[in-house]
Amino acid sequence: MKKWISCILLSALLITALPVYPVTAAETDCTGKLVASGSNINVSLSFPLAATEKITSLRFKLKVSVTSGKMNEPVFTFNNAVQSDVKESGIIKDNDSNNYIVDVVMSGKKGNLVFPANGQADIGTLSLKPSGSTYKISTQFTGINGENPSAEYVTETGQSAIEVPLVNTEIITTEGSSSGQSSSSSGYVPSATKKPDASAEPSASPSATNTPGVNEPSGTSAPGTPEEPGGNNNTFDKDKKPSMSASAKKGSRVITFKWNIIDGADGYIFYSASGKSGNYKRIRTILKPDRITCNVTMAYASSYSLRMRAFKTADDGSRIFGQYSKVKKLTTAPAKVKGVKARISGTKINLSWKKVKNAKGYQIYAGKKKNGSYSLVKTLKKGSVLKTTVKNNKKYKFFKARAYVNNASKKRVYGNFCAGVKAKA
Description:
The protein is an all-beta fold. The protein is built from 1 helix and 28 strands.
């Protein structure tokens, strides 16, 4: 069983602008389309033409049900035009029924867009494998975390996977008999009545991933769910826990992971959980077994629980997972303060700035020269406070500010200072 791999090379980000004309339903609906050709099902998706961000990672699921006859495990083949660095499909059989879940994941670097400008993407082909001349098989989109059809995606500007409903999807029924094979569409599948909260961390994922969870997409279960290995390799010690450290430079949201090599491993997977949900998603997969460090860009001013584990790839392509490392907790710095203004008003200097997301407070510094030394003149302990005053001291000609958040130990984590701003009358 594979899991959601979220794309993590998402720095130096771009945001495309919303069009100024009214947005129609066709521009906001996300749809999935299945077209049958014999026992092959072509799979394509259409994402909003009015989307404000470019999609680099995508995850969705198909449900294949054998209502009569027998079928071997289906195979999903990606279209060569898909630009993703990672293209994976996990096939999971329900042992209590003749159902399969096909978990499809794509994840790419910035610029490797899953959807071109027209919002349409031909993802690939699902090949059904009926084992007899008489059978009836239905194929449909299903949900990431439920029955209602949905998809998860990660954009160039975010780590968290966003789940959206797929509307107007159909069930495709493929039948075979002694007189020949036929396929037919059997109506629409109800879409979700409510869009999931985009701020919630998907449990699956990435992410990645999630990530899957971003984010790294590839699978259906949350990290920690037992996965059936397809083989065995005595050189890989799956009971050995990796030793992992996680750190971020002052003022940075980039987390640096370091770890020890696990003998026999083919790679390593990193997970994060944020907030109080406790749901981990994949944020990075390393496919070089001798690598011992990597960087992952996360959200500003956010607290994470982080862990990793090694894996071995079996002969049939499934993964055998090792133990999780100990959990490391880390809080990233808030973003740099923007829009600082300093106005002289008699014996006072009025200062204002733009709000920094998730900030718990701000510090104001003053100095004689723009690029000289500065001294702390005020600390504001509320992130909602966006202005203050200080005495008009002649030696205070330039001002700069920084935001801060509190980590799990209630210690402050500071963002970078903005450039010095001269006080004006």
